Amino acid sequence: MPIKIFTALIVQDMQNDFMSEGVLPVAGAEMVMAPIAAMAETFSRVIVTQDFRPANHIVFAESHSGRKVGETLQTEAGTITLKPKFCIEGSVGADLAKGLRLPMSRVIAILKGTNASIDSYSAFLEADRKTETGLQAYCEDRFVNRVYLCGLNREDGLVHTALDARHYEHDVYWVVDAVAGFDPDGADAATAQALKLKGVHFVTSQEVLNREIK
């Protein structure tokens, strides 16, 4: 008996603080809004991830006396680079980006970075590689076994999401024209090849729109 395929669109970190006028802008962030919106209309499950950090988060320079933005710090979960405050829980900066159009009745939100002592990259696991965000539990509950990735690859966050999705044995599709902060044909070509070797498929938003399985 063939395995039934349940799909979801994962929209990672499309938040105001990562837009061109935000605290930590990602080049091209606004440009991916249109393909994301078009794809989202065709999915019955749309998962949006949001950084949602407490004001005393470990990655903020202000949380460490005498430290400045750009300095590095060793933590139990690895080396972090200190940053200005961004995506503070409940702030406008943490809100989904203005102008992003999603079918909200079909959207589920996954919050990342909520633990003040742990940094966050992947949509599945925090930087300590132990703390779960709840995304995998959602996928198991809804029998999701194929995910399409779009949004922002800030600090290789979406790369971590792709690798974790493969770890959990999901079929993974990276939508190249709906991701900002990643150039699979340029500076990130080696990373793209490594993802392909892990089983990640690279597709365009038009190919997603043309797919048969919704």
Low-confidence stretches: none
Series of secondary-structure elements, N-terminal to C-terminal: EHEEEEHEHEHEH
Largest sheet: 6 strands, parallel
Share of residues in strands: 15-25%
Rg (CA only): 17 Å
- Percent of residues in helices: 10-25%
Number of helices: 5
> What is the typical, i.e. mean, pLDDT?
95
What's the N-to-C terminus distance? 20 Å
What does this structure look like?
There is one protein chain. With 214 residues, the chain is of the alpha/beta class. The protein is built from 5 helices and 8 strands; from the N terminus they run βαββββαβαβαβα. It has helices spanning 33-40, 135-141, 157-167, 189-197, 205-209; strands spanning 7-12, 46-51, 72-75, 78-81, 107-112, 146-152, 171-180, 200-203. The strands form 2 sheets. The protein has a 6-stranded parallel sheet. A two-stranded antiparallel ribbon has the order 3-4.
Detail the topology: elements first, then pairings.
Layout: E1 7-12, H1 33-40, E2 46-51, E3 72-75, E4 78-81, E5 107-112, H2 135-141, E6 146-152, H3 157-167, E7 171-180, H4 189-197, E8 200-203, H5 205-209
Parallel strand pairs: 1-2, 1-6, 2-5, 6-7, 7-8
Antiparallel strand pairs: 3-4
Write a concise synopsis of the structure shown.
It contains five helices and eight strands.
Annotation keywords:
22% strand, globular, two-stranded antiparallel sheet, 214 residues, alpha/beta, six-stranded parallel sheet
